[in-house]
Amino acid sequence: MSIPTPHINAKAGEIAKTVLMPGDPLRAKFIAETFLTDPKLVNNVRGVQGHTGTWKGVPVTVMASGMGIPSISIYSWELYHYYDVDNIIRIGSAGALSDDLDVMDIVIGQGACTNSVLPSTFGTPGLYAPIADYTLLQKAVEAAEEHKAKFMVGNILSSDNFYAAEGQSANDLWKRMGVLAIEMEAAGLYANAAYAKKRALCICTISDHLYKQQYLSAEERQTSFTQMMEIALDTAVKMAEIK
Length: 243
Ligand code: HPA
Description:
Elements: E1 18-21, H1 25-35, E2 37-43, E3 50-55, E4 58-63, H2 69-82, E5 87-96, E6 106-114, H3 134-146, E7 151-158, H4 171-176, E8 181-183, H5 186-196, E9 199-209, H6 218-241
Parallel strand pairs: 1-4, 1-5, 5-9, 6-7, 7-8
Antiparallel strand pairs: 2-3, 3-4, 5-8, 6-9
Helix pairs in contact: 2-5, 3-6
The structure holds hypoxanthine.
């Protein structure tokens, strides 16, 4: 296959080496307009907006992933294999399991457990363990420390289901295994990155806690989101410096 792909119609060279992926297309637009210098719309197939601009002089694309592992798997596959993207950083929200987390905290997904079959589609004869790229993880930790963020690094769960039928929630079991938080995309992204020999990382803000009654105000939501964005963007700059 060549470009344009079935889901991305950007031209050659219009997508940066590092792509930040929020789930929501409107959030991609907001990020580009708020943080990037000279953003340009480079994809709008199915309304999945991709914008390329610069941050601290480094080219960065912000493109939505949609929700769930099947959706991020399509976009990340096409970006890695056909648009020659090196780094994808998912920036999203997650529901906390760990007692050590509160809403507004940041979780960096070192590994991503999943109940999805996506990792098994690569055919390994056992459970493949999707993990973040170590260099991206290291740079993101550096950036999080520079921003004085409250963050944790560890295992997350990329779940195929947001809702659970009565008696079917496995939250207690994942929590018991030290899984910090639940989101819905990282494991697909990490497996795709490994297969493509590229880099991936998932950074999430805690939007809700599944064991504590904590809710974010609109202002808190915005503050924590801005901090995560700056960490992800500074990670893109740090990656450009090591090349
Ligand atoms: N589950 C899955 N994804 C999420 C959640 C959740 O509870 N909260 C935010 N994203």
